[in-house]
Amino acid sequence: MGAATVAVTDSTWEAEIENFQGYALADFWAEWCGPCKMIAPTLDELAGEYGAKLKIAKLDVDSNGEVAGKFGIRSIPCLILFKNGQEVDRLVGAHNKAALKQWIDQKTAG
After folding, report:
1. CA 107, CA 102: separation in Å to the nearest integer?
2. One of 8, 33, 67, 68 is an active-site residue; which one?
3. Block mean pLDDT (10 aa), the chain, length 110
4. Would you say 61 and 68 are in contact if contact means Cβ atoms under 8 Å apart?
5. Segments making up each domain of the chain, as ranges
6. Contacts of 67 (CB under 8 A, 6+ apart)
7. What's the CATH code, domain 6-108?
8. Can 36 be counted among the known catalytic residues?
9. Could you say which of 36, 40, 47, 76 is catalytic?
10. Distance between CA atoms of 101 and 74, rounded to whole angstroms?
11. Tell me, what's the pLDDT at 3?
12. Pairing of strands 23-29, 54-60
């Protein structure tokens, strides 16, 4: 996990995501997931590029089943974009940096 991303857990989810004012992107992942590992460096880069405009958080679904269950996570990686604690959209699977930036920019415009 990069310096710009935040690790979240079942116990910190409410404070870090639900109560966060602004945009937050939650990456639901697992250590054994190859595609999750593939996009991790890209998410670290995006966290650095977006800075304060977008919080990027990572939740390990194996260690944090409560939140993963709450959001019905069936496939990983699953990226869920939140605004002021409310789900805006979700994206499943590994995507390249350009596709992720386009999705984020489209959903956070305005």
Report:
1. 9
2. 33
3. 82 97 97 96 95 95 96 97 97 96 92
4. yes
5. 6-108
6. 8, 9, 10, 13, 59
7. 3.40.30.10
8. yes
9. 36
10. 24
11. 60
12. parallel
What is the structure's pLDDT at 32? 97
* Residue 78 annotated in active site: no
Helices of type H across the chain: 13, 34-50, 65-70, 97-108
pLDDT of residue 23: 97
For residue 35, is the peptide bond before it cis, meaning its omega torsion is within 30 degrees of 0?
no
Q: At what angle do helices 97-108 and 34-50 cross, to 10 degrees?
A: 50
Q: Distance of alpha carbon 13 from its chain centroid, rounded?
A: 12
What local confidence, expressed as pLDDT, does residue 4 receive? Answer: 80
pLDDT of residue 44: 94
How many other C-beta atoms can be found within 10 angstroms of the C-beta atom of residue 22?
A: 13
Return phi, psi of residue 78, to 5°. Answer: -125, 120
- Read off the pTM: 0.95
